Amino acid sequence: MTVVACPTCGKKVEWTPANKFRPFCSERCKQIDLGAWAEEKYTIPGATAADVQDDKLAEE
User: Fold this and answer.
1) What confidence score (pLDDT) does residue 56 get?
2) Mean pLDDT in each 10-residue stretch from start to end of the chain (60 residues)?
3) Number of structural domains, the chain?
4) 9 belongs to an annotated ligand binding site
5) Alpha carbon of 59 to those of 48, 49, 51: distances in Å?
6) What is the CA angle 48-54-57, rounded to 5?
7) What per-residue confidence (pLDDT) applies to 20?
8) Which of 23, 36, 41, 45 is the most exposed, having the fewest neighbouring CB atoms within 10 Å of its CB?
9) Where does the chain bind Zn(2+) (predicted)?
């Protein structure tokens, strides 16, 4: 059995098919995480839209 920490609250939870909220411990923690993404508290690094546009112009 694998045990992981809930990314939201840190509570230890089992990583099993029976845990429908994995890797979260509850629906509440899952929704808190979704809200953080929606509020742009998390980001994935990458080129900005302006950088991509500049690259396309340079290729032409």
Assistant:
1) 57
2) 96 94 96 95 80 61
3) 1
4) yes
5) 17, 16, 13
6) 145
7) 94
8) 45
9) 6, 9, 25, 29
Predicted local distance difference test score (pLDDT) of residue 34: 97
Question: Alpha-carbon Rg of the chain, whole angstroms?
Answer: 18
pTM: 0.68
**pLDDT at res. 52:** 63
CATH number of the domain that 39 lies in? 3.30.50.10
Determine if residue 29 is labeled as part of a ligand binding site: yes
For residue 25, say whether it is annotated as part of any ligand binding site.
Answer: yes
CA distance 36 to 59: 37
**Residues spanned by the domain of 52:** 3-59
41 carries a ligand binding annotation: no
